[in-house]
Structure formats: structure tokens, C-alpha cells
Amino acid sequence: MTSPGSGKHWRPYQMVASTPLSLHRVHHLHRRAGFGANWSELQRDMEAGPDATVDRILGVAELVKSFDVDDSNAEPKVLTTSATDFDSLQQLIGDAAVSSGDINRLKAWWFYRILYSGDPLTERMTLMWHNHFATSNLKVANVAMMKRQNDLLRRHAMGKFGDLLRAVVKDAAMMAWLDAKANRKGKPNENLARELMELFTLGVGHYSETDVKEVARALTGWTVRGGDFEQVAAYHDDGTKQVLGEQGDFDGDDVLAILLKQKPLARRIAVRLCEAFFGEDVITDDALGELASGLRERDLDIGWAVETILRSEAFFADDNIGNRVLDPIQFMVGPLRSLEMLDPPPSTLLLVEWSTKLGQDLFYPPNVFGWPGGRSWLTTRTMIGRANFVSTLCRGDLHRPARPLGIEALALKHGYSSEATQANFASELLFGHQGQAGNVEMMLRSTAAHLG
Amino acid sequence: MMKTNRREFLKDSSAVSLGAFPSLICRGTSAAEDPRSSHEGKILVVIQMSGGNDGINTVVPFADEGYAQYRSKLRLPTERLLKLNDSVALHPSMRAAADLIEDGRLAIVQGVGYPNPSRSHDTSMAIWHSAEIGDEDTLRFHGWLGTAMDAMQQSSQERGNSDPDMVLLGDESQPLAIQSRRSTAVTLSNLTDLRLSHPIPRSTDQAAAAPPSESGNSLDRFVAQTMRDATDTASGLEHSISEMTHLATTGGASYPSTMLGNRMQTISTLIKSGFSTPVYYAIQSGYDTHSAQLPTHSRLLREFSDAIKAFLNDLDSSELSDQVCVLGFSEFGRRVAENGSGGTDHGTAGPVFVASRQIRPGLIGSMPSLQDLSGGDLRMNVDFRSVYHEVTTNWLGVRNVSTLSPSQIPLNLFQV
Q1: Residues A366, A287 share a domain
Q2: Whole-prediction pTM value?
Q3: Quick one: A390 and A305 in the same domain?
Q4: Alpha carbons A415 and B45: distance in angstroms, whole number
Q5: A282 near B CB under 8 A
Q6: A246 and A345: one domain?
Q7: Which residues in chain B are contacts of A359 at CB distance < 8 A?
Q8: Are residues A369 and A387 in the same domain?
Q9: Most A CBs within 10 Å: which of B197, B213, B215, B277, as the mutation test of the A interface?
Q10: Is residue A371 part of a domain?
């Protein structure tokens, strides 16, 4: 594993007296790098310490990646029995969703993965890339294609950005979403060309309108046939193009190679990652710049950047804890995991309905920009929706048959018998610290419950 | 009578002072700083008449000899028509629409279409939705309303506004018209999406409502404020809904109990509740009348007209009607000649309805002749993009919407 960054902005976190590994920090790590943890997991990682815990989180991601990427036929020898069980079950659910043609079942499949995957970090990253390469089934209208794109995002989630980019822009769902099929010599369609530069790689201000037109010409001939990417020479404009100062008879692959060399790209990836792992006003411009140059030096290795972030002092700093608006899925899944409400399982189709109500309809990002995130998750409608979700969860109505939350029993199970210690237990379990008042329903409707 | 009832309602509602009623339900203090939510901003409500409305039997050219010639079974008896002048009249079931024209609240733009019309529902609807003319394969990704909202997004973001730019009322998936590059559109099935299933206990409520402590950072304050606003909206809506129910049962703002009526009532409730959303969208389906058209068409036009009138009257009583404009359109009109099944097939141009207190009322443009057809279809007189252009610039106040050609002849839809 590549060693994490050692620049002045990304010093590794050290367990010293001034910054002890409190429950608060372990709780924080699980919320940001995953979807929350239960009491036993929190206790286990308190003992293990931050290095070992981050090792474990990244190690699982590495394991899954290695058996996922290298050879799809390979036996997943390194995985535990429960992980292989998980994998065969999720495959079953995913395949059934595809053959049903019902996108809600595909959303439920993803919820299943988020709830039960032993590698929550990769699910978090997949969600992040779904937002970056925002593709909506509203236009694609094909469950199989949406699943394939999702699997692709997961496979490359922690790898080299170049591999991810090359795979995504030739993905059938993406091609349909951005009208790449209609891009022909002499009648170029600029949709993919523009978003490729504006959203996927460089960002506004780092290319010109001429670049958009020229890239669109270079991309002519890329199309989808029978659900697969195909390059049709007859549709391709093989004339000379001028892209970002370079000149040649470029095709799409040439353009990707040019884009992957551009300096602003690394910064854009760094910004994305910092959005995912940090709250408001934590990462300075200098720190972003340092992460971006680290990415450039390492061939845009996403896994390296994630590791650098998760091991950093900045990540564990007090001003990075509890200062980020939870997205709807985190808001929903966090309590389900913490409160051990996963066995028997909640209805994933109901979770799908709720996430839509709360503004995060998987596979239907609102537009090419994805979900704006942050404060925009919280609106009048979604605040009311969140309060109602909490009621539904506490009354057990996410489960069929209904299975009301038994916080006393859970507290007892973990050795807290008096009423006062039970309240503290709930507060620590849900927030990583004591002091949240009221019953669980009130706690989950409080201001703090929306931040993490 | 209605006013008395309102006063009675207000008397019962201890938290409310009479003068503050229209803004009673406004959320919190931040909402008051928002020009749109304090109702200075204009609101557009679009009703999509899906399926291709038979414009000829809606705004009837009864004096045109072609009408009797092409419509033997479907010809509406002249004596029952609601005459607008000596050649054009409304369908008899559009009494409410005729009333709106009479008191200056409805304009009908005649013969609206686009060049080389497509008779495909999908293609033609996509053209109306996107304001881009082309064939089926033409890229259409953003809608005309989405584009208009994108053009005004800057100010919306600067205000830190959290209400959606566009709301679809109904169960349908969001139409292309409200798809956008960066604006927000949500679908609300009904108001229960905005109601608390279990009230927040008083103690939590107070904790949320307490002034933020000095140590609280801006994000904590933001969350607390949003929560407070949401709680206010939820309880405000409870009041509003109970008032609505109260008035409905005593003859106040009564809506027809049709699907469109319900949707318009929900939109009105949202507007009255202080939502800063500038665009609402509702879909009325069923206009694809290939056979036995008369009864179906009559029901649809009544539902359409009654819902608009009830909506405008309702907003009138809350003194909000100056801010609201309703636009009704269909993807095409129908063939001039009726078919053999007592119905009509897909045609071209048709009427567009624009209802508002600020409208230049009555008929706008001229009815296409039924004796000068193009392949059996009406020739359009007005490009629909001129209507869009006036609605976006002169009503919503959005400039430079690139997809809408400013070179169209002005219709002067709105009174200056």
C-alpha cells in the first residue's frame, strides 16, 4: 500500500494526550467512511485504535477490489464466509431486479448493499461517483444499463481515476444519458463533450467553447449497439482538431488522454473527495492543492487520496466532527445500523420510497450536476420527511411485520441496566457522545441528528 | 359569507392576527426576506392538456362554413355555444372559462403551433416541452421552464432559497418541460408530504425554537432554523387545510372534486403557505379522443375550466391572484375532419389558455380558417414560442432565455 501523504497539510493523525481516540472520533470515522456502526463495532475499534481501524476499513476495500477487478471468475478465497454469503445474495437480488425491469428493485438492491456490505467505504465511494457522473434512469430507462454502470463505478471506485473515466464515458447508460449515440460526423452533438470537460474532468473556466466543439468532433463515431459501446469509423470525423492547445486527428481516446494530463483535473478530484469526507470550512485551499499535487504524482490514484484523508490529523480534528449535513441515505441507514435493526431486515423497498421523499432518489439524480448536497439536503419538505421517517423507524414500521425499536433491550444487552445509563448509551451510540436529551425519537429529530 | 367564515376561523385561531393572515403561514424570518415568498414574485401554473385537445371543438369557429362541412356528428349546436364574438364561441361546458373572459381574467391565443408539425404525441410534446423544434432524434434534455429557471437560478442561490424552483403536482413522472441543468424540481403527490405524522413534542420543539447559543456555529443555526421553518409550515398547513375544509363545506373557495381540481387546490394551498416556488405544473390527461369524443371532451373541458376558475377565485380571496398566471396547452390540436368513430385524429394547431388578473383578456390572434387547410390540418397562426417568450420575460421576469426566439411578433399578453 502506498504510504499516505506527509506534506504539512496531511500529517497523519497521532493518538496523543491532546487528541485521544475518543468514542467521538471512532463514531466519526464510521459515519464518514461508512454508514455508521453498532455498539460492538464501536467498542472493538476503540480498543484497536485509529491506525488499525483505518487499516481494517481500507483493507476490506482492497480485498473486495482485488477479487472484483482482476478476475471475475476467481474464487473469492480471501473473503470470509459472511462476505461470500453477502456477495451471492446481493447478486441474486441484483439479477432479479434487472430481469424484473423495475428500477425500484434496483434501488432496493443498492440499499441492500449499503445496509449489509462488509465494505461500506466502497459503497460510500460508489455513491460519490454516482453523483459525479450523475446519470438518470429518467432518460436511460434501462435497469440493466443502470446496474452495469453502478457495478462499474463500484469496481473503479478506489482505483485510478483514468480507468474510472475511460470506463464511464464508454458506458452504455452514460452514452444514452448524454446523447452520444446521436453524435455524427458533420452533425456533432456536444452534450457528452461539454459534460466531459465541465463536470467529469476540468470544470468551468479550464476549456473554451471551441474546445467543446472540437472534442464533440473527436467523439463522433462513438455509439452504442446492442447495449454495448462501439466505435463506428464511418460516423467518425477524422479531420484535424485542436483540443486544449494540442492538434491532431484525435478520436475519443486521444481526447481522454489529453484531459487526463490536465492540471485542473487533479484538483477537481481532490475537491470531490474533500466534499465527501469533510464538513464545512475545514479544508483550506492550500490543503486542497497539496492533495491535488499528490494525486498528480500518483497517476490520480483515488485509493491513495482516500487513505491520506482517512489517516490525517485534519480528518480527526474537532472542527471536522459533526459539521456536515448528512445525506438522506446516511440519515436513514445510520440509525438502522447503530440500533441493530437489520435482523430481521427492514423493507428495502420502503427505504427506497423514503430516500426519494427525502430528496435522494437513487439512479435519478436531479440533473447532470448530481445532488447539490450539503445544506441543500435540508428543505421544508425534507425536514418534515426526516421527522416522519424517524417516527416510522421508531415505531418499527420499516419492518414487516412491524418491529418497534426496543432501546431498553439493546442497552441491557450491552450491559446498561438503569434508566439513566440507558439514555447515555443511546446518546453515545447515536452521536458518539453523551448529552442528547429525550427518547430516541426525540434524539433523532434533534438538530444534531442531521449533522455528522 | 366567505369573509365571515374566515373571520370565524381566525377568531378560533389564537396565534393569528387578522391582518397577518396571508403571511401567517410564511415560514420563519428568513422566508420574509425572500421577495418570492413574500409574494412579490410571480408564479406560473402550467396545466398540460395531454393527448391533443380538439381545439376546433374548444374554441369553436361556428361561422366558418368548414365547421359544418367537416364536423357532421361532432358539430356542437350553435344555440348552445358560449359566443365570444360573431364567429367564435366556447364549448358549452366551458361556462367557467366564459365567465373568466367576461371579467377580464382569461385570454385565449388562437391557432398556436409550430412549423412542420409532428403528429406524434411524444415528438410534439417534446417540442412543446423543450421549445426546440426538430425530429424524434433531436437532442432534448432541458425543458423550457427548466431553462427559464436556470436563467434565474443565480438569484435564487444567492438568497439561499431552499424551496424547489418547480413543483409537479401529481403522480406522473416529471415532464421534460421542468427538466433543467441546475434548477430543482420536485413532485408532490399531495400535501401529506408536508405534514408531520407525529407532532414534535413540545420540549423538542422549544429546544429547536430556542435562540441558538453563542457557541453554536452557522451550520447548527441553519439546521435549527430550517427545522423551525419546517415545523411552522407543517402547523401552518394544518391551519390552512382546516380552513380550506371549513370553507369548502360552507361554500367558500370550493373546488370541483376532480383530479385537476384537487391538484389546483393543493397548488393554491402551497402558494398561500408561503412557498417561494415560481413554477407549478399539473397534468390533465385524456384528450386523445379518437372515438366517441363528445362526452369525454365535454367532461375534460368542464374539469379544465372549473378548476382554473376555482383556483383564481380562491387566490383572489387571499389577495394573491395578482401574482399568479395559469397557462393551459396541449401538444397539438386534432384533425379538422372527424373520423368514422365519432372522434378525431391527430392534427396541428390549437388554442392556448392564459389566465391571470394581469392578462389582456379575450381572443388573441385569429382562428385559422377551416377552408384553407394544409393536408387536412389547420395552419398555425402563432408560434407557441412567442407565448413562452412573453410568459418567461413579461411574467416571470426572466431575460435572455436562449431557446426562446425573441424575434417573434409580440402578442402583448399582459397588460402593462
Answers
A1: no
A2: 0.76
A3: no
A4: 59
A5: no
A6: no
A7: 186
A8: yes
A9: B197
A10: yes
> Which residue reads 403528429 in cell numbers?
B119
**Chain A interface mutation, best of B36, B138, B153, B223, highest count of A Cβ atoms under 10 Å:** B223
Same domain, A335 and A406: yes
φ and ψ at residue B197, rounded to 5 degrees? -70, -35
Distances in Å between the alpha carbon of B12 and those of B25, B81, B249, B254, B273? 16, 46, 17, 21, 19
Cβ-Cβ contacts under 8 Å for B118 (sequence gap 6 or more): B124, B127, B135, B136, B332
Residue A179 has its nearest CB partner, among B139, B173, B174, at B139
Element (H, E) at B373: none
> Does residue A383 belong to any structural domain of this protein?
yes
Q: Rounded distance, CA B257 to CA B265, Å?
A: 10
DSSP state of A242: E
The ipTM, to two decimals, is 0.88
Number of domains in chain A: 3
Q: Which residue of chain A is at minimal alpha-carbon distance from B150?
A: A367
Task: Looking at the complex, report in whole angstroms how far the Cα of residue B221 sits from the nearest Cα belonging to chain A.
Answer: 9
Highest mean pLDDT (candidates A191-195, B33-37, B235-239): A191-195
Q: List, for residues B177-232, the tens digit of each pLDDT value.
A: 998 877 878 878 777 777 888 776 554 544 444 444 545 678 999 899 888 878 87
Residue contact A375–B219, C-beta within 8 A: yes
Give the mean pLDDT of A262-275: 97
Give yes or no: residues A363 and A438 share one domain: yes
pLDDT of B35 above 50: no
Does A253 have pLDDT greater than 60?
Answer: yes
The answer to whether the Cβ–Cβ distance between B222 and A442 falls below 8 Å is no
Same domain? For A423 and A353 the reply is yes
Boundary (domain end) residue, out of A283, A301, A324: A324
**pLDDT for position A137:** 92
pLDDT tens profile B360-387? 999 999 999 999 999 999 999 999 999 9
Strand (E) positions, A239-376? 241-243, 246-248
Strands B350-356 and B382-383: unpaired
Distance CA B18, CA B1 (A): 16
Strands (E) across A370-428 are located at none
Residues of B in contact with A189 (CB under 8 A): 139
For residues A202 and A182, is the Cβ–Cβ distance under 8 A?
no
Domain termination residue (choose one: A308, A324, A340): A324
Residue at A88 is within a domain: no
Give the model's pLDDT for residue B270: 86
> Do both A304 and A167 map to the same domain?
yes
Domain containing residue A370: 328-449
Domain membership flag for residue A384: yes
Whole-angstrom distance, CA of residue B100 vs CA of residue A85: 66
- Taking alpha carbons only, the member of A42, A118, A105 closest to residue A76 is A118
CA distance A228 to chain B (A): 19
Chain A 183-242, CB below 8 Å of chain B: which residues? 189, 191
Phi, psi of A222, rounded to the nearest 5 degrees:
-80, 130
Q: What's the N-to-C CA distance of chain B in angstroms? A: 33
Percent of chain B with pLDDT over 90: 53
Contact call for A191 and B141, based on CB within 8 A: yes
